[in-house]
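REQUEST FORM: STRUCTURE PREDICTION
Request ID: SP-0412
Submitted by: Lab K.M.
Chain count: 1
Length (residues): 419
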Amino acid sequence: MTLKYDVANLKLAKEGKQKIEWAERNMPVLRMIKERFKKEKPLKGINMACCLHVTTETANLMRTLKDGGANASLCASNPLSVQDDTAAALVKEYGISVFAINGENNKTYYRHIHQALDIKPHITMDDGADLVSVLHSERKELAESVMAGTEETTTGVIRLRAMQAKNALKFAVIAVNDSKTKHFFDNRYGTGQSTIDGILRATNMLIAGSTVVIAGYGWCGRGLATRMRGMGAKVIVTEIDHVKGLEATMDGYQVMPMSKAAPTADLFVTVTGNLNVIRLEHIKKMKDGTIICNAGHFNAELDLPALAKTASKRRIVRPQVEEFTIGKKRVYVLAEGRLVNLASAEGHPAMVMDMSFANQALASEFVVKNHKKLERKVYTLPDKVDQEIARIKLQSMGTTIDKLTADQKKYLASWEMGT
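STATUS: Completed
RESULT:
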């Protein structure tokens, strides 16, 4: 099959390969799966269309799928998260079709999704459900040949469950995000660290002593809140869920509505997966010099059109930092409101993405083995998959845990023994 691609510059491939190999050093679980896949070829003859962040960690997932026998194509799930050297290396060094260019416009972004879908996939692999959305709306003819899909993110799972509720889903999807070894670690530790990395690379601001508002107290939000507090920030949380608001309160954070938090903070970070979480009404209350950014999947969390329309002046003041002037006040938006951890930094560390992409690889194998039993619903991988990924990860870290004794197993399985 002819290798097809659209990347920025194939001459970047050598540098990209070095970075991919560096990331692989810290991905022992995926590496073990890759070695098994190479022998067993569980994905032999399977066409896979993948819409993911084109990073070094993703590159190692794509290599694993290829070694498993898959014919895979890759497009970007976010224009600003594409690492052009990684994209070049995947094409030139590893023979994988890639359609992704850093900074690509909206038209090119969707053209690339269509090019990835041209492979006529048996499995879709998504990060935000854009691939599935296009397949269901503009490429409906492809749905019949799809065994199932996989989804990486909270945002994507929300969209897919909405489709399921309306009976619009044309095939099963595995919610990889719902695996414990994904959201407990990737969302919490990965987002917590990489978001701060992106903010610091863009602004070089001092976190200590700053007031930081975090919108959303899901696993991403609580991971970010923990690390912001650890760096000396005064953290405020905004929420719409009473239970999560209560959790944040008992975790020691101030909890209040965005309208009340708006005048007080130096930095705002949205991690909700929802629409217009920070609106013009909030921005107008913010103080001069406020920094606004987003770590949720889509830039729709910030009402940027309204901000652009109201601003009397806008200019780029640093890479990935845009200044908007409203009256005598200036506010700064990072990374065009897109994922700041991927647009301004390198995204999650390989060590945590190891588990997320192990889930993706094993979800693909699960689909091949079980697709005939699956209904048009959103599924979660079996707990035994989580346990095996965690076991291998602990082993790679030199950590061991206890095992149940025979008596303990008997006790947990009985009701007769009482107290």
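NOTES: The chain has 17 helices and 15 strands.
Reviewed by: T.R.
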